[in-house]
């Protein structure tokens, strides 16, 4: 009798254990069984792991089987909530935390007309770009977490949290300052982008000219070697330059007042020279044209060297009277120049020139100034005015015509003798 009671007790205990396991595995709960086909399940997905849709638990993982080229995961879904899950859902295996186990996340399409999931349906793993990237991140992160050692990482994070404790206001001010800096820096990003592109072009240019630059540096070594060889002579030159500089300094120091007075005294003549400088080229040209005449007067190139003069005796004008016959420098006509050898005997009648001057005037021509007397501009204008009266082309009008006709157009009387 006691043996039967012991056997019955053991059977009851075994039945209780089996019943407990069945209850834990939810064998007696009504569910909708679907199969998830995935390329792999991972080490963190276990039986009885949660199945969620939009963050709400809708079932559990009933079984995990390997198919050789992937995995089949049997999902037991809540019949009351499966009516909201369309048949075209996809699944994603994601971890709860960095160190936690995985669960099955069901992704419901935004716009779907599919019927609800039914017992025996097969769903696939979410293979969108975001899902694949997220899964790849977690897969790559697992070896890193294993190498980091979670307890050490937790210690480090605790130390960081302790260091930041009580400094939230300072951290917030720092973040605000950084945000203001980035906001002010943002408008300069296009300019920074242009500068970076210009830097790339300059770098490319330097890369292209690098061989020539190296050749130039190589050639400069010859010059540097020459300088090194002539350093004694250069030292002597430097000493001489130093001595000359000292002598010039002493000279300038001793004669500074004289130089200043000379500059002050020479200003007036220089101003006069500057005023009459436009006539210098013409004067020098006239002097150069006078050389042949002077050679003839001095008998150059003849067998009668000496001064050849034609002297005329005129009546006496009386003795020199001081204060009356003294030279007077009161010229105010400005710079002018007359070509040498001017003579109205080249076949142009004065009457023709006078008629030409009478037939035109500066006011009628709209000309305000003929420029410098006897200047190229004046001669060109006078030739243009006189040519019709002479019946010749402007280029054939004699150059000395401006000496005779120019004063007429300037309002000056000209007397021919």
Description:
This protein is of the alpha/beta class and 417 residues long. The protein folds into 4 domains: 25-148, no CATH class; 187-229; 230-309, no CATH class; 350-409, no CATH class. It is built from 12 helices and 7 strands. The protein has helices at residues 2-24, 129-148, 150-164, 168-185, 189-229, 231-276, 280-289, 291-297, 350-358, 362-365, 376-390, 401-409; strands at residues 32-38, 50-53, 56-66, 71-77, 90-95, 102-107, 122-125. The chain has a 7-stranded mixed barrel. The longest helix has 46 residues, at 231-276.
What structural class results from the helix and strand content?
Answer: alpha/beta
As laid out across the biggest beta sheet, the strand order is: 1-4-3-2-6-5-7
Report mean pLDDT, rounded to a whole number: 78
Give the low-confidence spans. 341-369, 413-417
Number of DSSP E strands? 7
Largest sheet: 7 strands, mixed, barrel
Put simply, the count of helices is: 12
Shape: elongated
How do the helices and strands follow one another from N- to C-terminus?
Answer: HEEEEEEEHHHHHHHHHHH
The N- and C-terminal alpha carbons lie at a distance of: 181 Å
What percentage of residues falls in helices of 4 or more residues?
40-55%
Strand percentage lies at 5-15%
Task: Tell me the radius of gyration.
Answer: 58 Å
Please, how many domains?
A: 4
């Amino acid at each position: 009798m006691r043996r039967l009671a012991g056997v019955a007790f053991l059977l009851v205990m075994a039945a209780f254990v089996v019943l407990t396991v069945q209850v834990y595995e939810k064998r007696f709960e009504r569910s909708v069984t679907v199969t998830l086909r995935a390329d792999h399940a991972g080490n963190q997905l276990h039986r009885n792991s949660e199945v969620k849709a939009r963050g709400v638990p809708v079932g559990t993982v009933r079984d995990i089987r390997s198919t050789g080229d992937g995995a089949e995961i049997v999902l037991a879904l809540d019949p009351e909530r499966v009516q909201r899950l369309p048949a075209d859902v996809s699944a994603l295996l994601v971890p709860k935390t960095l160190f936690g186990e995985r669960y099955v996340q069901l992704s419901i399409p935004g716009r779907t007309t599919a019927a609800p999931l039914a017992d025996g349906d097969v769903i696939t793993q979410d293979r969108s770009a975001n899902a694949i990237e997220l899964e790849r991140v977690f897969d790559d992160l697992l070896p890193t977490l294993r190498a980091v050692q979670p307890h050490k990482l937790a210690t480090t994070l605790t130390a960081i949290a302790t260091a930041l404790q009580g400094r939230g206001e300072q951290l917030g001010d720092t973040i605000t300052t950084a945000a203001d800096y980035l906001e002010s820096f943002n408008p300069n990003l296009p300019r920074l982008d242009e500068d970076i592109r210009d830097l790339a072009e300059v770098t490319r240019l330097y890369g292209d000219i690098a061989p020539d630059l190296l050749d130039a540096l190589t050639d400069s070594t010859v010059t540097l070697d020459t300088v090194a060889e002539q350093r004694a002579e250069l030292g002597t030159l430097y000493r001489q330059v130093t001595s000359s500089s000292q002598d010039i300094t002493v000279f300038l120091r001793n004669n500074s007042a004289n130089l200043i007075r000379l500059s002050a005294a020479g200003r007036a003549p220089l101003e006069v020279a500057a005023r009459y400088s436009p006539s210098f080229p013409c004067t020098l040209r006239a002097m150069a044209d006078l050389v042949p005449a002077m050679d003839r007067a001095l008998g150059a190139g003849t067998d009668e060297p000496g001064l050849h003069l034609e002297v005329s005796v005129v009546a006496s004008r009386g003795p020199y009277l001081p204060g009356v016959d003294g030279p007077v420098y009161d010229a105010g006509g400005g710079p002018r120049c007359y070509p040498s050898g001017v003579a109205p005997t080249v076949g142009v009648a004065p009457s023709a020139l006078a008629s030409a001057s009478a037939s035109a005037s500066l006011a009628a021509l709209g000309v305000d100034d003929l420029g410098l007397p006897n200047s190229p501009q004046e001669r060109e204008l006078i030739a243009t005015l006189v040519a019709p009266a002479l019946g010749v082309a402007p280029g054939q009008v004699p150059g000395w015509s401006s000496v005779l006709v120019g004063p007429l157009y300037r309002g000056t009387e000209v007397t021919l003798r």
